[in-house]
Design brief:
The structure is a homodimer of 250-residue chains.
Chain A (H helix, E strand, L loop, with lengths): L27 H7 L7 H5 L2 E6 L4 E3 L7 E15 L5 E7 L4 E2 L10 E14 H10 L1 H27 L2 H18 L6 E3 L4 H8 L3 H13 L3 E3 L4 E4 L1 H8 L7
Antiparallel strand pairs in A: 1-6, 2-6, 3-4, 3-5, 3-6, 7-9, 8-9
Helix pairs in contact in A: 3-4, 5-8, 6-7
The structure holds a DNA duplex (30 and 30 nucleotides).
Chain lengths: 250, 250
DNA sequence: CGCTGGGTTGATCGCACTCAACCCGCGTGG
DNA sequence: CCACGCGGGTTGAGTGCGATCAACCCAGCG
């Protein structure tokens, strides 16, 4: 019996390259395609999944806590952040539908995972999930690929944080969001920022003021257009030039 | 017939938690322990491995090139770095014996991997390696763990780059090196820095001058002691306090 | 109506960057 | 033998980018 899940991005579920959320029976097809699981084994999956419907600012996992679960985001967005004792905060990643919480985890969570707006997610018992991976090598290799992708994104982010100017960081961040939107089957040019300026700042290693100033600077330079809501239109050529760091001081 | 490999860190090979370098026959025992490979399948591994003996400043992989190989470091140290068009450089990781080059890679290398001093490494054909992973699920899950570890390190580094002061970055870097030395079976307190100040700067998102100043500042504060060569003695308590960012302005 | 969260803009400050000089050890060659 | 260049490192003086502090705007909401 299919339940009434509503996906923000139905297109996401049709891209075979992504490991999408196996919530119950209704995504059986996708599981078999994406995770290398035979159709007749799906019941084993369905019975170990808990479907979560979360409000804004809910914590899926907390830094330092015992890592008992593993999540897959179904809809909405999640931020992963680390804290310093005095309250300084660094967001180490944003997760969107299809992404996993718990890839970089051994025994305790290394970060707090908090929802940005309402989120739907699938939750697995960690141990159960490990056993599933043993049974279904396709799932395991898929997961390995995803971990690789995350690592590549993290390394790109290290480049931003370590060597790029505020303008370059904002530019490459917007382009990154645009790419992720495209991968989710959403429009890649007028993009929507699901997170606040504070979150962007905490991701880019800047202050909220610096982000705000940089955005208006990009706006007045006609490199982006700020629309209603959190819509942003990107003028790719010039934005790419800046984001990739072509000696840009301008 | 065992060949005359000399390991910088023989102790490394005895820690079952690490996936050590399977160069030829002589590490058969470790393979079977660490990679979940049956002893009688080792020939399959041995025959697809190329043993490399590299000088200083040799490139194992170059950013943007086709990712044809997969490496495991046997001895020495390697830096992974990304470049911006105008020459700015960010080191995204240091690799030591037992570590892999190519974890975060899909089709092309996302970084350049360059040796720091003489290095010995094992090289696999990428496709062959993928096939091995299919045959030996133990290897695959081991690799997944390693990717997770790398990701966790990367996230910790994002925190440093985004939110820590120069002093805090240097402190946590030294502590990180100390931990890695311990995992390799080397002394964890008087540690040796295998890399230059320039490399440290490019890893920490600082300039060489900032690194130098910070080191002398830590030295005059009696928090570290700079010895001969590239030896550094750490005074853990205070260094940890700084490195973990306890509001430290002092 | 006031309060709050999110965002923008202005003025000033300070940390790390930049530019520069200098030291040391080492290898090379006249 | 010394001169020289070079890579690696340290130290000093001045600058600038982004942080900090502060004021303000706006929309939503009880």
């Amino acid at each position: 019996m299919p339940h009434n899940l509503s996906f923000d991005t139905p297109e996401a579920l049709t891209t075979a390259s992504r490991l999408v959320s196996p919530c119950g029976q209704c995504e059986a097809r996708h599981l078999s395609v994406c995770m290398g699981v035979e159709e007749d084994c799906l019941d084993q999956l369905a019975c170990v999944i808990t479907t979560l419907r979360l409000p804004s600012h809910a914590a899926l996992a907390r830094e330092g806590e015992n890592a008992g679960h593993f999540f897959n985001i179904t809809s909405g967005a999640v931020k992963l952040y680390k804290l310093l004792p005095d309250g300084r905060q660094q967001i180490v990643g944003f997760l969107f539908p299809g992404d996993f919480v718990g890839l970089a985890v051994r025994d305790t969570y290394a970060y707090t995972a908090e929802t940005i707006g309402p989120v739907m997610a699938c939750r697995f018992e960690r141990r159960t999930f490990e056993r599933l991976l043993e049974r279904f090598p396709g799932m395991a290799s898929c997961l390995r690929e995803r971990a690789s992708d995350e690592l590549a994104i993290a390394q790109e982010q290290m480049l931003s944080l370590g060597r790029k100017s505020a303008k370059e960081r904002v530019a490459s961040f917007l382009l990154q969001l645009s790419q992720r939107a495209a991968r989710l089957g959403l429009p890649s040019n007028p993009i929507t920022l699901p997170m606040t300026r504070t979150d962007i700042a905490d991701y880019l290693g800047l202050t909220i003021e610096a982000v705000s100033r940089t955005m208006t600077q990009l706006k007045t330079s006609r490199i982006i257009t700020l629309g209603t809501g959190h819509m942003v239109t990107l003028h790719r050529e010039r934005l790419t030039e800046i984001g990739e760091g072509w000696g840009g001081c301008s």
